[in-house]
Amino acid sequence: MPLQISDLSDAVLHTHYAVRGPIVARAQELEDHGKEIIYCNIGNPQALGQKPLSYVRNVLAACERPELLKVANHAFLDDVREKARYILEQSRYGIGAYSESKGLRFVRAAISEFIAARDSHDGVAQASNPEHVYLTDGASKGVQTALRLLIASGNDGILIPIPQYPLYSATITLYGGRQIGYYLDEESGWGLNEQLLEDAMRRAMKEGIRARAIVVINPGNPTGSVLSEDDMRMVIHFAKRHNLAILADEVYQENIYKPGLKFISFAHLMSKIEEREVSLFSFHSTSKGFFGECGQRGGYMEVRNVPEEVIAQITKLQSVALCANLPGQVLTYLMVSPPVAGEPSYRLFDEERNAILSELGKRAKMMEEGLNRIPGIHCQPIDGAMYAYPSLSLPAGRTDEEYCMTLLEATGVCVVPGSGFGQKPGTAHFRTTILPPTSQIEHVIDAIAAFHLQWR
Amino acid sequence: MPLQISDLSDAVLHTHYAVRGPIVARAQELEDHGKEIIYCNIGNPQALGQKPLSYVRNVLAACERPELLKVANHAFLDDVREKARYILEQSRYGIGAYSESKGLRFVRAAISEFIAARDSHDGVAQASNPEHVYLTDGASKGVQTALRLLIASGNDGILIPIPQYPLYSATITLYGGRQIGYYLDEESGWGLNEQLLEDAMRRAMKEGIRARAIVVINPGNPTGSVLSEDDMRMVIHFAKRHNLAILADEVYQENIYKPGLKFISFAHLMSKIEEREVSLFSFHSTSKGFFGECGQRGGYMEVRNVPEEVIAQITKLQSVALCANLPGQVLTYLMVSPPVAGEPSYRLFDEERNAILSELGKRAKMMEEGLNRIPGIHCQPIDGAMYAYPSLSLPAGRTDEEYCMTLLEATGVCVVPGSGFGQKPGTAHFRTTILPPTSQIEHVIDAIAAFHLQWR
Q1: A296 contacts in B (CB within 8 Å)?
Q2: Burial of A136 (0-12, 13-18, 19+ CB in 10 A)
Q3: How far is B400 from chain A (nearest CA, A)?
Q4: DSSP at B141
Q5: Helix axis angle, B138-150 relative to B166-174, nearest 10°?
Q6: What is the dihedral of CA A312, A313, A318, A319, to 10 degrees?
Q7: Which of A51, A279, A295, B419, by CA, is between 20 and 30 Å from B383?
Q8: Does residue A259 form part of some domain?
Q9: Rounded to whole angstroms, how far apart are CA atoms A349 and A339?
């Protein structure tokens, strides 16, 4: 008899990943039948018209085919040629061979330098160990490795924010762990609240769950909030008090739009307060920021305050599927070692970066203001990341799943219901990206407004 | 307190992946200290000098940077330009955007056509459903998805050949399943033997293990054997009798060296005998064959005889980490739709392919004959794949682990002990790849011969 659905584990069956769930499947069906769909369900910038950075693609093309540096010499600026040659030389075999399980050494070294430079401020001289850096296929794979390590029994729990990015809930379920939701405080712009963290912890203890780690997404997905140093400090003390590791999802670190706000990494703050007892896993990606290279799956995980014997276990886990893809590793290298002022590629690189980031800032503002103009929809400030997560006043008994599905059918706008990210009981939300071009954002807002006013 | 080794699960701690284990770590240390190492531990052709195919890299370079088709038009043949344009058009957003979770549709369609063409022979008109094809980051990730699906409880077992490729043992342990080893028959060139399969099944039942699937690696890793149709038919009947799914690891399907031998896929044979009750997961990769593109992590999994509701579960699992990397997806597309006679790229493509495959055939023969000339070492015929797995006569009480570690220290030749792949109690083996260039193979054999004669 063929494999049946009844043969599968509860862990598989109960895994739920809303960002690509039934609403998106329905959107694809509608699109196949000729309906125009605006995909606001997923942070996929190049699918909504964002151009890849010229510098990055030029180097990657030369790495794929080094002969181009000879036969089409004129098509590459000097620093692109040098960078590609350096990569090919340092990788020894080019991008067609497996690398070490952790990833190419020179890339890990460059990541450590990037972290040290980024985090050496405010009186802190930061250092990072390249042997504690892992190249991953996007940040997702790094998160999964960390969760694999931390969930040792069906009783082990991971604190995740509510709302959260569903990679976390899905992976925790799939790995047979327990999810411990802690609420973010919508009224204060989705801020952290120590009381809400302790509440979550108490509930977990009552259920006999052993909490192992806390996930913090900063800037926030889906919330768009950016953490203050005080909130981060509070989280570190909380983690220490309860013997938790911290998983710091920092993939939106370049995506901060509110003037005056600055990204602070957990690695920086933990160095600043000389915290060496709390294990830290931080994640970064080439899919977000201004690269937006989602398809090429680059990213890294840096691990701190973890003994060498645990590092060896992580390396072993990485080795089972051999290594992260090499184009993604090269991309990650380019992210952490971009052209600098004076190099031939710098001017265009800088222009393209600034254009993308200021455009994203503009779209965040348009989305926030536009949604807030709709009676019955309320959106907190979008200070960072790539999403809006507005609350909806819905008629009694109706759910945001129904709302989003009907919105899709009526307007072609594809957003994801709040139920996929988690929310306080009795509230309703959806997540939309801020990624459509400005002309489309207006259309999206108008469509939602018209829909919202008549939906019952 | 930081995360401790005692916090980790037994599943993590017991996972063992020999191909990148302590011997390889030691090899890297020695290399860092200036010793010349010949890495025969892993099938990584480009690290041992195999050149990537020009056609493939030209198309990939153009996909990374489409402007090259204009600014360096002369550097691309007509069919390369067309192919790249087709890929960019069909993918809609190029290679920088996430694709569908299953992978790009046109790539899946091309894979289905490839399978149908490959498998339509011997009176069988084969068909393949693109909706049952999944693009994966190398074959490894596909294998892991299938095992994730099949291991539903700590009592679920997977039959794997002994010797096997340690991806299987490692993943089964990591996912908390039970490994059921079935011996291959060394004396008959590592053939399959129904009695040995039934023995394994009986042992499993006695231990209360519920067998869920059988893994077959054809051509064999590490054995180099190629299955006959009769053996495959026996496996299918065995699987049906015991209600097992089949995992067909067919990544070496292009690597058959013995004249007259032909690759037969499980999909073909199951169509031929009209078997519709046995679920089949088959795997292919761009890392082996004559592409050897290990670093770019391309591959696919095709699923058969599985109900649609299970297909939906597989798609959900794939979606949690978004999608396979797009350069790898493009590479897989090129593997299944190579240039054809008459196209401008064909001649060089064909030359490069034939040169690689005939070179690999030559190396397989050299390795087999060379090892068999050493008294106390016996190697079965290397009919396919990329490895030799000779048996060793060792002094009483000595292990192949010690042997390989000492061989490495003495000669710089890095091979993997039989204990990492599994072997009959009381026997000793190592696995070496056949990949070093011919001049190095002679050196490897001489080094092993000299070492073997004096090692006590």
Answers
A1: 95-96, 325-327
A2: buried
A3: 21
A4: H
A5: 40
A6: 70
A7: B419
A8: yes
A9: 7
Helix %, strand %, coil % for chain B, to 5?
A: 50, 15, 40
Q: Rounded mean pLDDT of chain B?
A: 94
What residue has token string 């190049």? A46
Residues B382 and B329 in one domain: no
d(CA A5, CA B306) in angstroms, rounded, equals 9
Amino acid letter, A405: M
3-state SS, residue B29: helix
- If you average pLDDT over residues B3-24, what whole number do you get? 85
**Of A278, A312, A336, which residue sits at a domain end?**
A336
What per-residue string of b and e applies to B329-340 under the rule 16 or more CB within 10 Å gives b?
Answer: bbbbbbbbbbbe
Same domain, B318 and B379: no
Distance, CA of B432 to CA of B386 (rounded, Å): 9
Chain B residue nearest residue A49, CA to CA: B93
Phi, psi angle pair for A76, to nearest 5°: -130, 135
Clarify whether residues A316 and A392 are in a common domain: no
Q: Residue-wise over B381-417: b if at least 16 C-beta within 10 A, else e?
A: bbbbbbbbbbbbebeeeeebbebbbebbeebbbbbbb
A213 found inside a domain: yes
Tell me what pLDDT residue A20 has: 75
How far is it, in rounded angstroms, from Cα A12 to Cα A170?
9
What does the alpha-carbon distance between residue B222 and residue A432 come to, in Å, rounded to a whole number?
A: 49
Domain assignment of residue B303, yes or no: yes
Same domain, B295 and B354: no
The model's pLDDT over A9-44, given as tens digits with 9 standing for 90+, comes to 888 888 888 777 789 889 989 999 999 999 999 889
Q: Does one domain contain both A264 and A402?
A: no
**pLDDT exceeds cutoff 90 at B20:** no
pLDDT grade for A271, boundaries at 50, 70 and 90: very high
- Same domain, yes or no: B111 and B30: no
CA distances from B320 to A377, A434, B46, B306, B323 (A): 29, 22, 31, 21, 8
Which candidate, A378, A342, A384, A338, places its Cα nearest to that of A364? A384
Q: How many residues does chain A have?
A: 456
E-assigned strand segments in B163-239: 178-183, 210-217
Domain span at residue B168?
98-336
Which positions in chain A touch B242 (Cβ < 8 Å)? none
Q: Which residues of A touch B321 (CB under 8 A)?
A: 137-138, 140-141, 144, 167
Q: How far is B4 from chain A, CA to nearest CA, in Å?
A: 7
Confidence (pLDDT) at B167:
92
Q: Using a CB-CB distance cutoff of 8 angstroms, which residues of chain A are in contact with residue B3?
A: 149-150, 245, 279, 305-307, 310
Kindly give, in sequence order, each residue whose CB lies less than 8 Å from that of residue B26, ignoring residues fewer than 6 positions away: B405, B408, B409
Structure tokens, B297? 């992590």
B114 and B42, same domain (yes or no): no
Q: Are A362 and A436 in contact (CB under 8 A)?
A: no
Structural domain contains residue B123: yes
pLDDT surpasses 90 at B21: no
